[in-house]
Structures are given as structure tokens and as C-alpha cells.
């Protein structure tokens, strides 16, 4: 189930500017967006160009790249989107915590060349790399013959994580599947799980703001931290990701109500990681363009220096299929 696409479908064209076979190309529909996507610059399996091509096939008109703790893929994604005549929003997904609960903060419209942001992301990347080494060390204690260099070579990015360790375990023949690797070794409470040092949610929100962006809580139903939303709003949180592949219909309604109550922006996305978690998810969540327009309006207001209070938002859910 997904939010209904709002907007008019245009007819198929003969031009293929996104690298999609002509027989499969669908011109973008400005009426929908996917604002939560990952590439191989973090733990996705697709290149930025592949993500854009699949976004075209899905009829999307706006894409945001939100790789974990990195903006390295954003320049390529921006070029690919421009070539395919899609709107692009620069983003990142920051791992944070508040009151010992892990939260993910999505930053939208951030400046990918902001020096403080880049310094903090580089620090997060070192933490991720050290965590991989510790996970591998624990696996070695279990007589699993995996080396950290194997994981880093497979990841080939600055922001490696558990999915890369899982893929390395499968590739080396130590596990039959990604799911087995997590179930046996990498899930919280399993023998190779290692906690990750995180910035506070307040620091993440401040970092996004000083980089010129809007801070949104990702997939709140997975965080089980509804009670923190008022305090985070007071600390500057700008929005909630109400539409997500793992949000039930009741969860969507609940977070849309939260957004209305606390005057928070509404976002949504598939959280597609390519083929690492089975069928690619891009296109399974299509955010109505009215929400994208509100995001853009708030970004423009912030960057213009306007001080007029943001009016109460109307986070009505799209009609669900």
C-alpha cells in the first residue's frame, strides 16, 4: 500500500536521458516523490545513476539521496537527476540518539560542501570503520575466518556498516544469506554485535540546520520514541517521515496526526537500499507533491532569512491504494 500519486501522467517520450531502455522509460511525474534513498556510497547496492533510472521507471518526479553519514553520492545524483529532468534534494541520514534511544535524522537541502558538516560526517565514518573492525574481531573469536579488509573492499565506501559485514560473510561462504548473517551474528544481542557511538539527536538537528537544511525524524514507528517528539520539536525538529515502507496504515495516520499537532513538515520515502534487502523498494512509496512543495517553501523561507512564522501545516494523508 502506498500514498496515491497526485498529478497527471504524461505520455511516453522517445528520449531516454536517464539510461533507461526506451521500452521501459516512463517520463517523470511531478506529482510524487521518494525522499529516502540509499546508494553504494553507504549501504545501498545501486549507483546514483541506477537509482535515478529506477526512479524514472517508477514515474517519480523528485528524489532525495539520504545515504548514511555521507553526502559523497550527492553530486553524481544531482547530475543524473538533472539529465533525467527530475528534481533533486540533497540529503543525508544521520545516526543519533536521545535518552539512550537510537534515532535517525534525515537532513534535507543541506549544503554538501559545508565544512562543519563534512568534518562531523568524517568523524562518523571513522566510528563506522572502527565498529566494523570490532565486529570482525568478535567474529574471529568465534572462529569465523573473516578479515576487516574483506569488508572494506566489498563496501568500497567511507560509511561501511553491518550490511557490508553481512555481505562479506555471505561472499566468503560463512553464511548462506544476509538474513542468516544478521540472525546468527550481527543483530543486537548476537555475539558479533557492537554498539555504535552516536551523536545526540540535538547535535544532529543543529548540524543539519547549520548546514542550511531541514531536520526530519526518519521512520518514527521503528524508533518507538513517540514520547520524544514534543521535546525534539522544541529543539528544532522540522518534520516527520510519516510515509515509509515499514509504516502500517495506522502508523501513517498516527504520525500525520503528530505532524498536524506539532506543526511539523511531512515527508516519506521507500528507504530503498537496492537489492541488499530483497526486492528494490524504490517506487513502493510515492509521496504526494503537496508535501514536497511545503518542504521547498520552508527551505526557501529559511534561506531568505524570513522571520514570519510558518503557518500550521495540513498533513492530510494521500488516498491509499
Keywords, please?
2 domains, nine-stranded mixed β-sheet, 9 strands, 38% helix, alpha/beta, globular, DNA polymerase, domain 1
Task: Provide an overview of this structure.
- There is one protein chain.
- The protein is of the alpha/beta class and 321 residues long.
- It folds into two domains: 32-113 and 203-304, TIM Barrel (Alpha-Beta Barrel), CATH 3.20.20; 120-186, DNA polymerase, domain 1, CATH 1.10.150.650.
- The protein is built from eleven helices and nine strands.
- It has helices spanning 48-57, 74-83, 115-141, 148-155, 162-171, 178-186, 201-210, 220-223, 229-234, 249-261, 289-304, and strands at 32-37, 62-65, 87-98, 101-108, 199-200, 214-217, 239-244, 265-269, 287-288.
- Strands 1, 2, 3, 4, 5, 6, 7, 8 and 9 form a nine-stranded mixed β-sheet that branches.
- Helix 4 (148-155) packs across helix 5 (162-171) and helix 5 crosses helix 6 (178-186).
- The chain is globular and about 60 Å long.
- It starts with 31 loop residues before the first strand and ends in a 17-residue tail after the last helix.
- Mean pLDDT is 88; it is low at 1-18, 22-29 and 308-321.
The CATH class name of the largest domain reads: Alpha Beta
What would CATH call the homologous superfamily of the largest domain?
A: Metal-dependent hydrolases
Estimate the helix proportion, in percent: 25-40%
The number of helical elements comes to: 11
- Which value, in Å, is the CA radius of gyration? 19 Å
SSE arrangement, N to C: EHEHEEHHHHEHEHHEHEEH
Q: Determine the CATH topology of the largest domain.
A: TIM Barrel
Give the mean pLDDT.
88
Total strand segments: 9
| Global outline | globular
Major sheet, described briefly? 9 strands, mixed
Total domain modules:
2
Are there runs of 5+ residues with pLDDT below 50, and where?
Answer: 1-18, 22-29, 308-321
| Straight-line distance between termini | 6 Å
**CATH architecture title of the largest domain:** Alpha-Beta Barrel
Strand percentage lies at 15-25%
Class computed from helices, strands and strand pairing:
alpha/beta
Amino acid at each position: 500500500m502506498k500514498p496515491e500519486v497526485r498529478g497527471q501522467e504524461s505520455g511516453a517520450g522517445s528520449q531516454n536521458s536517464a539510461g533507461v531502455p526506451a521500452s521501459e522509460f516512463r517520463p517523470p511525474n511531478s506529482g510524487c516523490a521518494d525522499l529516502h534513498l540509499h546508494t553504494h556510497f553507504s549501504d545501498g547496492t545501486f549507483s546514483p545513476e541506477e537509482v535515478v533510472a529506477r526512479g524514472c521507471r517508477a514515474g517519480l518526479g523528485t528524489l532525495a539521496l539520504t545515504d548514511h553519514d555521507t553526502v559523497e553520492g550527492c553530486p553524481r545524483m544531482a547530475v543524473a537527476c538533472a539529465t533525467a529532468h527530475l528534481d533533486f534534494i540533497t540529503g543525508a541520514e544521520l545516526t543519533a540518539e536521545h535518552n539512550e534511544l537510537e534515532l535517525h535524522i534525515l537532513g534535507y537541502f543541506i549544503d554538501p560542501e559545508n565544512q562543519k558538516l563534512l568534518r562531523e560526517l568524517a568523524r562518523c565514518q571513522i566510528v563506522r570503520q572502527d565498529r566494523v573492525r570490532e565486529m570482525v574481531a568478535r567474529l574471529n573469536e568465534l572462529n569465523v575466518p573473516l578479515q576487516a579488509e574483506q569488508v572494506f573492499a566489498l563496501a568500497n565506501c567511507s560509511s561501511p556498516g553491518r550490511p557490508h559485514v553481512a555481505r562479506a560473510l555471505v561472499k566468503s561462504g560463512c553464511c548462506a544469506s544476509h538474513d542468516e548473517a544478521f540472525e546468527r551474528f550481527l543483530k543486537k544481542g548476537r555475539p558479533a554485535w557492537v554498539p555504535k557511538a552516536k551523536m545526540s539527536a540535538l547535535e544532529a538537528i543543529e548540524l543539519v540546520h547549520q548546514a542550511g537544511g531541514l531536520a526530519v525524524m526518519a521512520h518514527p514507528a521503528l524508533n518507538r520514541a513517540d514520547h520524544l517528539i514534543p521535546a525534539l520539536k522544541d529543539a528544532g525538529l522540522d518534520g516527520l517521515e510519516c510515509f515509509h515502507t515499514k509504516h502500517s496504515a495506522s502508523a501513517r495516520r498516527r504520525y500525520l496526526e503528530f505532524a498536524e499537532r506539532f506543526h511539523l513538515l511531512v515527508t516519506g520515502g521507500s528507504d530503498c537500499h537496492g537489492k541488499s534487502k530483497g526486492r528494490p523498494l524504490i517506487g513502493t512509496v510515492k509521496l504526494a507533491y503537496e508535501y514536497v512543495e511545503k518542504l521547498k517553501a520552508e527551505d526557501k523561507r529559511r534561506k531568505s532569512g524570513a522571520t514570519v512564522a510558518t503557518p500550521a501545516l495540513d498533513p492530510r494523508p494521500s488516498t491509499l491504494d
